[in-house]
Amino acid sequence: MSRFLLDLRLAIVYLKTHIAISRYVLSGLYRTMKEQKSISEYLNEPINVQDFFDAEMKKIQDSKQKAEKKNMAKLKIYPVNVGPLKKPNMATWLSKFVLEDYAIGDLDELHAEWVKSFGPRKANLLYWKNILVSIWPVAKAKMISGLKAVGLYEVIRQLLF
Amino acid sequence: MIGEFEEKLLMAVIKNGDDAYGTTIYKTLEQWDRKANLGSIYTTLNRLEDKGWVESKEGEPTKIRGGRRKKYYTVTGSGVQELNEARQQRSTIEGSFDWQTWGLT
Prior knowledge:
The complex is a heterodimer. Chain A is mainly alpha-helical. Chain A is 83% helix and 0% strand. In chain A, α3 packs parallel to α5 and α4 runs antiparallel to α5 (120-150). Chain B is 54% helix and 10% strand. Chain B is built from 4 helices and 2 strands; from the N terminus they run αααββα. Chain B has helices spanning 4-16, 22-31, 38-51, 77-96; strands at 54-58, 71-75. Chain B has a two-stranded antiparallel sheet with strand order 1-2. Classes of the chains: A mainly alpha, B mainly alpha. At the A-B interface, α4 and α5 of A face α2 and α3 of B.
């Protein structure tokens, strides 16, 4: 009886091993067939050199951009329109009350040049400075002409000086 | 009577010729070490226009200016006359002034 049981166990082990080997061989065969299929597909496909080159260039550019971003974060270099003063939209809005449209246009033109020569941070600072110092003479001239129109200018001048 | 800043502005407008507008005038004054802000430049130019020494015309809007127009300036005949008079006056004064007496060379 014990002999029969031992034989049975041996037979089971033998069968299991065979099944495992055949499974391994079959999966290997399947993989090889799949690979062969993909290679044949690849070989049958027309090779577009331009697409391949573009894809490679894109990869290089992406990695370059990532590296640049990393360096900029390290050096605290701000890209255009991102700085401690932000883009001077607020200054433009503020100046609209006093300055003429062409003066703001001139400042926008100068701002673009300042960004090129000094960087965005100093350009924004110069823009703000120019807005603030430009408002005063225009406001003064407007106030004087208004007072002259009402006839109060001479009266105030005599009172003050 | 023409002021110092008015004189320099007229000269800057003449120097820039057909391309005389805010930015170019600002840059020319900067080159001459006579720094001025755009507000005072435009206020003075408006005053000169009222006097009839300069004329202005609007240009085309450009993208770099945020779609805003330029304002071109040209010096009129009376403006040139004023400049000449100011120059003559200055040369007369300088000619009659004895520089060496006052320790100036």
